[in-house]
Design goal:
Blueprint: H1 4-13, H2 20-32, E1 35-40, E2 43-45, E3 51-53, E4 56-60
Antiparallel strand pairs: 1-4, 2-3
Helix pairs in contact: 1-2
Length: about 70
């Protein structure tokens, strides 16, 4: 698995300037919830410079439900 810094470097090389705090939050969410899918599409940059996810898909790993009884 790639680290958030590796993902950020890859995005920057492709001309996609993503804020590091946003990428870190997405990666943490992915692993903390034992997801099998975390898709943000589209991710837009607002006129005031903030990023906003307009739509998202999250699929949780059914076999991990026992580890997340509080959710």
């Amino acid at each position: 698995a790639e680290t958030s810094s590796e993902i950020l470097r890859s995005a920057q090389k492709k001309g996609l300037p993503l804020p590091s705090d946003l990428v870190t939050k997405f990666i943490n969410l992915f692993f903390e919830l034992d997801t099998t899918l975390l898709e943000i599409n589209p991710l837009v940059k607002t006129s005031n410079g903030e990023f906003m996810a307009l739509d998202a898909k999250i699929k949780l790993d059914d076999s991990a439900l026992g580890r997340h009884k509080d959710r």
